[in-house]
Write a structure and sequence with these properties.
Radius of gyration: 16 Å
Shape: globular
CATH class: Alpha Beta
Order of helices and strands: EHHEEEEEEEH
CATH superfamily: Hotdog Thioesterase
Structural class: alpha+beta
Number of helices: 3
Strand order of the largest sheet: 1-4-5-6-3
Mean pLDDT: 96
Helix content: 25-40%
């Protein structure tokens, strides 16, 4: 079940390529982070705002499936799907060619809400995050 979905377009820059002239595998993690940050900005609860509230959401687990390499100049559509908020923030990512719709990469992350000052886990999502995702889903 999806709590919210959002799409981000990324154009592959030259410096993301490896010696084989395809996107280096580690950059797909960066693309998921760009998309996650865009989602959080869209709902009005960025990492900066979390820090002000005294929390953080570090990635605790990530699963990845590489399907096909992206190349220089290719426009990618990163679909970010929030699947669960509690006890952890579970997000699924699907990276496709923005023109053809061909799937290139899939991933899932699990992030745990942590109190910044103590490092202790919090198992309930902040109200700002819940409300922001609800607004996005209903828009």
């Amino acid at each position: 079940m999806s709590l919210a979905e959002f799409e981000t377009i990324i154009e592959v820059p030259f410096y993301d390529l490896d010696p084989m002239n395809v996107v280096w595998h580690g950059n797909y993690v960066k693309y998921t982070e760009i998309a996650r940050c865009a989602l959080l900005e869209k709902i009005g609860y960025s990492y900066d705002e979390m820090r002000v509230d005294g929390i953080m959401y570090p990635v605790a687990k990530m699963e990845m499936k590489f399907i096909k390499s992206a190349v220089f100049g290719q426009k990618l559509c990163v679909k970010t799907i929030v699947e669960e908020l509690e006890p952890g923030l579970n997000i699924k990512y699907i990276i496709k060619d923005a023109g053809t719709g061909e799937t290139l990469f899939k991933a899932k992350t699990m992030q745990i809400c942590v109190e910044f000052s103590t490092g202790k886990s919090i198992y309930e999502a902040p109200e700002k995050l819940k409300k922001g995702l609800e607004c996005l889903k209903n828009s």
